């Protein structure tokens, strides 16, 4: 099975949605997916994340229409999509240990979709094993 | 000419953008019974290519693709 590594350090909703969509394309093509969340992206994985930003865009019309589509339930939320993908394929979701510890978090404080809290050495190891790497 | 099929479940994903319709179909088929037909309705243009491709990769049977009233109906038989 081919492997794809996805790395995200942004908590921006549009980046997380894009990551989840790319992961869905990978799963439907039978790729193994290793996802590594860093920095703000780890904050977005908190169970009690109190703030979720709207999708932003340099084009106001894009932001308006995408957020409207989200409100109307026409776009699967990235958290729900990742949860589905874990059920449908080989998807591992990891949080960066550095930011997790800085924020005083444990794995239990993060969403159940998170498989592990690991360091960049593990990321590098997975990158060496991967066929492709995409960062967001 | 329309043909009658015995469909186990119809997924109305006309209100979903990509990858919604395909993901709903995959989930339904994964949980479904072997040999049954599952149908998804989609208005998403990407589904025309993505759904048949996935069906082929996953080794299910693309029973029929029916275009009607602004959406497309994809009928898929679970083969494994």
Helix content of chain B: 25-40%
Q: Considering DSSP H and I runs of 4 or more, what fraction of the residues of chain A is helical?
A: 40-55%
Number of strands of chain B: 4
Cα-to-Cα separation, first versus last residue of chain A: 23 Å
State the shape of chain A: globular
Largest protein interface? A-B, 16 and 14 residues
Largest beta sheet: strand ordering of chain B: 1-2-4-3
- How many DSSP helices of chain A? 6
State the order of secondary-structure elements of chain B, H for helix, E for strand: EHEHEE
Beta fraction of chain A:
15-25%
**Unreliable segments of 5+ consecutive residues of chain B:** none
Give the biggest beta sheet of chain A.
5 strands, parallel
Q: Radius of gyration of chain A, Cα only, in angstroms?
A: 15 Å
Please tell me about this protein's structure.
The complex is a heterodimer of chains A (136) and B (80). Chain A has helices at residues 13-28, 40-44, 60-71, 78-88, 97-102, 120-129; strands at 3-8, 32-37, 91-96, 116-118, 132-135. By secondary structure, chain A is an alpha/beta fold. A five-stranded parallel sheet of chain A has the order 4-3-2-1-5, sandwiched between helices. In chain A, helix 5 (97-102) links the parallel strand 3 (91-96) and strand 4 (116-118). In chain A, helix 1 (13-28) runs parallel beside helix 4 (78-88). The two termini of chain A are 23 Å apart. Chain B is α+β, with helices and mostly antiparallel strands and 80 residues long. Chain B has a domain at 19-42 and 59-71. Helices cover 29% and strands 34% of the residues of chain B. A four-stranded mixed sheet of chain B has the order 1-2-4-3, covered by helices on one side. The longest helix of chain B has 12 residues, at 20-31. The radius of gyration of chain B is 11 Å and the shape is globular.
């Amino acid at each position: 099975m081919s492997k794809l590594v996805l790395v995200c350090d942004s908590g921006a909703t549009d980046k997380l949605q894009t990551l989840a969509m790319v992961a869905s394309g990978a799963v439907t093509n039978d790729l193994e997916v290793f996802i590594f969340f860093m920095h703000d992206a780890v904050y977005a994985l908190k169970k009690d994340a109190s703030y979720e930003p709207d999708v932003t865009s340099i084009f106001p019309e894009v932001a308006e229409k995408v957020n409207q589509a989200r409100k109307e339930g026409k776009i699967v939320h990235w958290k729900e999509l990742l949860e589905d993908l874990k059920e449908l394929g080989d998807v591992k979701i990891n949080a960066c240990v550095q930011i997790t510890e800085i924020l005083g978090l444990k794995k239990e404080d993060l969403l159940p979709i998170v498989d592990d809290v690991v360091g960049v050495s593990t990321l590098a190891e997975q990158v060496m094993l991967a066929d492709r790497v995409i960062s967001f | 000419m329309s043909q009658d099929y015995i469909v186990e479940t119809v997924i109305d994903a006309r209100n979903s953008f990509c990858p919604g319709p395909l993901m709903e179909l995959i989930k339904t088929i994964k949980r479904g019974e072997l040999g049954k037909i599952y149908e998804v309705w989609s208005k998403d243009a990407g589904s025309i290519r993505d759904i048949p491709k996935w069906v082929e990769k996953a080794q299910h049977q693309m029973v029929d693709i029916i275009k009607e009233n602004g959406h497309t109906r994809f009928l898929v038989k679970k083969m494994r």
